[in-house]
Design brief:
The protein has about 140 residues and is of the alpha+beta class. Helices cover about 20% and strands about 35% of the residues.
Length: about 140
């Protein structure tokens, strides 16, 4: 009796890692509480790049980011300062640069100042694990 080969693709390979990001600009005292309007474009060990509507912030502004597992499109009536949404962590950072991204958006490069390194590493590992699975699938298909 032969053992059937393991499938290259599984349904779990296509599940999204869903999260929401809310932003509080502590310099201007304004909030962007519609997560459908904020996307993480790049991540690094001590920062990230966001895509958000124009005029959310300028270079040098201090931001508080709230990241939590949820489908994009979450709206809150207030910034969750000091309140805990399940799975949420917050990051305080400074805007290093802001560049236009189309007519209505901007790319915001944020350098972290205050954050829990373990929470951030856990968040990054979700992306790294996902990428490792994709790389494994591509390698198997190429063989």
């Amino acid at each position: 009796m032969t053992v059937p080969p393991k499938p290259l693709l599984k349904a779990s390979d296509f599940k999204n890692f869903e999260y929401s990001v809310l932003l509080s600009n502590t310099t201007t005292k304004t909030d962007l509480l519609d997560s459908a309007r904020i996307r993480i474009i790049e991540i690094s060990d001590r920062g990230l790049v966001l895509k958000a509507p124009k005029s959310v912030c300028s270079e040098g502004h201090m931001l508080e980011l709230f990241i939590f597992p949820a489908k994009a499109g979450v709206r809150l009536p207030f910034a969750p300062h000091g309140k805990k949404v399940p799975g949420m962590f917050s990051i305080t950072g400074k805007t290093k640069s802001v560049t236009p991204d189309g007519d209505r958006n901007q790319r915001i490069d944020v350098e972290f100042y205050q954050f829990d390194e373990w929470e951030w590493k856990d968040f990054i590992s979700c992306f790294q694990n996902r990428q490792a699975r994709v790389d494994k699938i591509i390698k198997a298909i190429q063989e």
